[in-house]
Fold:
Amino acid sequence: MKHPLQYFPITTYAIVMGLSGLTLVFQRFFQMGVLPEIFFRVNLFFVSALFLLFTVTYLRKAIRYPAQVKVDFTHRIRVNFFSAVSISLLLLATNYMEFMPQVAKVLWWMGMVLHTYLMLHTISFWIQHNFEIHTMNPAWFIPVVGNIIIPVAGVEFMPAMFNYFYFSVGFFFWLVLFTIFLNRAVFHHQMPQKFMPTLFILIAPPAVGFIAYMKIAQSFDLFAQFMLMLTYFFLALLLFLRKNFYKLTFYLSWWAFTFPLTAATLASVMAFHQTHFQFFRVMAFVLAAISAIVIAGVTWKTILQVRKGEICVDEDK
Structure:
């Protein structure tokens, strides 16, 4: 009989990404005097514990079932989700920045080095294999566009030129992959239901890009406004596409709803602090409420699936 550990999915790190984004929202709202600090602290320690739990579990899988890990690492879709591990480290570093700066520094260096390796590995994997257009979905953004997250905390540890390197690579591949995705979405078969939630990943690059650029350049200039307005455009587009998300069967891919929404919330908070324009404040509150509701719903669905034993299953069947 096959043990569930054999099929422990690498996609579980999307949970850490979503909850890390919510933790950052709690932190910003505490700094705005809207929420007590306890929300931030409890969520931070919970997400940290969850990250350790997932890491220990996946390491156990690597020790007991190395062949299955190799299958994941060479899978045409799952290979992209390994970068969620490094992104989780980077997001945790951002969360710890003001609370425990030394811990943040260690987490950031670990995340940056790991993400650099995974990015280069994934791009090499793409180049060395032939792909059908139907295998392309927004999850491809994770390993390469995820570079944009590095400068968010990286500005505290490395000079601007270093951070611009990762920002530039992430921004470049965002444009390239979005073009490929649009071609796939318009001119080819619709994405399988399982990957429909990954459409929300379209929000993340401009939202995180805005935050990263503001951190590096310290300027609410035309380029910053360009990134922010694209964030709102994709939010509006997904609102028009909302019927595609009704009655979806639950998969772990539902966690793709979460981090992009929290990223858009954080971008709105930063825009408000820069401009004091009330529109951004309203957007921050609306998006924070939506993010909290969505995360609560997805968390409840995940718990139900865990209780049914439907998480650690063979995804290729």
